[in-house]
Each structure stands twice: as structure tokens, then as C-alpha cells.
Amino acid sequence: NICIIFQEVYPVRFIVGDAPKKHTTTPVVKEKEQKKPEEAELHDAVRDLKISWITKFGLRPEGVSLYQELCKSYEDHLPLHLAHLNSMVSSLKEQKEKTDLKNAKEEVEKLEEPVTPKAIISQADKIISSVSETELLAFFGTKHDMRHDASKIRSSMEKQRAILLEALNHKGCSLIKLLSLLKEGKPLPSGGYPSSTQEESRSERFSHTSSSKQSFQDVPSETSLESSVTEVTTRPQGVQAGESIENDSFDSVTPRLLIKDVLAQVDLIMHSIVKFTELHDPKVIQFAIEHAKVMGQYARAIRFVKKQEGNAKEQELHMIELYERLGWTHAAAAVKSAMPIKFPPSYQPF
Question: Which Pfam families does the UniProt entry name for this protein (predicted)?
Fold first, then answer.
């Protein structure tokens, strides 16, 4: 007898969903709060009031001088440096939103220092280097903290984590802006590639990532930023992947090599963020969107845009852009046709 076996092959698709949220409850140990002296409370209140005015002044001479004055007395106070970082980011956004070139030029002349991605990265590094990620991870990895001042320590650690995430978000977005400049072949603003003295400590924290080849760097060649640059050269002596290139070796580095180094730093930031929070956290969702776009993962960017809080009209326009990049012309056309209904320019009179 002859037995004939037919082999059938069925395609299988795996869709990986979001990781389940971790709900942890820490027992709160009540303690008797020691009242601060009135002079100390007044001192802290005046400090916090001045810090709040740094963001209001922005990068005008008043705001910069106030920041420099407070740095002399509160060099290690993280909210102070974060306020200056936020003022730099908001000033950069205001410059971009200016449509009148004359008004934009007048606004730039009012600034004490130029707002560039490099300046934002330098300020963010100042904050990141002041926060110990190892201590934060060790604390949040502890199941129960039975110390008598556990609630106070937890409050301090949560504040440090929030400040660290904001700094990582701003640094990552600024690095991605530099990537777009390199892709378009434009000159880098004031000093070129960002150099930072804190990068050695940062590379030590993420030394484990150098052995891991998975990560986010598997990008299709047609969507990679590296495809826009054809020039190739050797890496300067003493410079490793993911490290900042100092200004003295900048002239010997080609755009293609710079793109690789900036992409490596962007990946390090992504690895650091996912240690502390989910990517749809409002503090880091902007970086998550930009990271997905840089890596050519536009569907992932769409998912983050839908979860983003803010102007609904801007979100719709952003969705149209991402749909077109994916080639989903039917989805882009549907959103465009619904725009006049969702956001009418004016209402009909009764």
C-alpha cells in the first residue's frame, strides 16, 4: 500500500499587546510630623516663588539672571534646573510658532542666550547626572518599606523620578531634532553635536545595553535616517558608539556617523524611560511619538498620538500625517473629510 501524506501550511500572526499594569500598594507608616521653624518655611516659600517666576520670565535677561542667582544658593535643587529647562523648551516652541519674521527676530533679540537643541540637551544632562537611577530602581523595587519615615522618602523619590522623566523626555526630543537636521543636510546650530561631561557616567549606567543587540535599532533600510547620507568614514579615535563626540573631533565626523551616534543615545534614553514608567505616560509620550517616527514605526506612533492629551485638532492633523506616511490614503482621506465637521471655523446663526 502506498500512503501519501499532504503537508498543509497555515500562516500564523502574533499580535503582542501592552504589558499588564502593575498595581502595587505600599503600607503607609504614620509618623509624627515635626513642624518646621517659621523662618525655614518662609525661606522655602520665597525660593519656590522665585523658581515659579523663572518659567514666567523665560529666557529674557530677568529670568536668566534670576536662575543664575538661585544657582549660587541652591545648586543641587532639581526643581530649579527643571524650571530653567522648561523655560528653554517653551521659548523654543514660541520661536517656531512665530509666523511674522520681523516679530520673530525681535523676540530672539530679547533672549539672553540662544535656544538650541544643544542648549536643551546640556541643561537636561545637568538634571540627569544629579539623579541616581540605581537608588531610584532599588527603592521602587522594594516591596515593603518599613522605615519610620517611609512616606517622606517615597514622596522624595517620586519627585525625583518625575523630574528625571521630564529631563529625559526633553533631551530625547532635542536629539531627534538634531537627527532631522542631519537628515536634511542642514548645519547644526551653534556648536554642532552636543558634547557633555556627564556622558561617561551615563554610559556606565547603560553598559548592559551594549551587549544586547535587540532593542529598537532594527529599522527598515527604506525608513532609516541613515539612508539619506551616503558619505562613510572611520570613527574618530577614542569615540565609541553612543558616546558624545567632542567639538575638537567634530570636523572629522561625517553625517552618517553622527546619525549612528545620536540614534544610540536616543535608544539609551528609551531604555532608561521604560525602567520607570510606561511610554504613554504624559511626561514622556511626546518622546515616544518622536522615537516611533524616527524608527519608521508609524503605526506605533499613531497609537501614542491617540493617547496623547492636548489639542484635538493638532492630534487629527498629526494622525493625517502618519496615515500618509504609512500609505493609508483611505484613512487619511476619512480624517480630512471629517475635519470641517469636527472643527467648524464658525457656527451657523440660529
Answer: TPPII_C (PF12583)
| Predicted TM-score (pTM) of this structure | 0.70
Cβ atoms of 226 and 256 closer than 8 Å: yes
Backbone conformation region of residue 139, classed left if phi is above 0, alpha if psi is from -120 to 50, else beta: alpha
CATH number of domain containing 176:
1.25.40.710
For residue 132, pLDDT over 80 is answered with yes
Strands (E), the chain: none
- Residues 189-230 have pLDDT tens digits of 554 444 333 443 444 433 433 333 343 334 333 333 333 333
Number of domains in the chain: 2
- Does the residue 347 lie in any domain? no
Distance, in Å, from the CA atom of 324 to the CA atom of 332, rounded to the nearest integer, reads: 6
Give the Cα separation of 277 and 165 in Å (integer): 8
Would you state the pLDDT for residue 247?
Answer: 40
CA distance 28 to 144: 9
| Domain-located, residue 36 | no
338, pLDDT greater than 50: yes
Same domain, 47 and 171: no
Query: What is the C-alpha separation between 40 and 228, in angstroms, rounded?
Result: 57
- Residue 95 maps to a domain: yes
**Cα dihedral 285, 290, 294, 297 sign:** positive
Q: Which of 281, 53, 296, 314 is nearest to 168 (CA)?
A: 281
Residue span of the structural domain in which 159 resides: 116-138+152-188+223-228+251-309
What's the angle, vertex CA 162, arms to CA 160 and CA 166, rounded to 5? 115
Domain-embedded: residue 171: yes
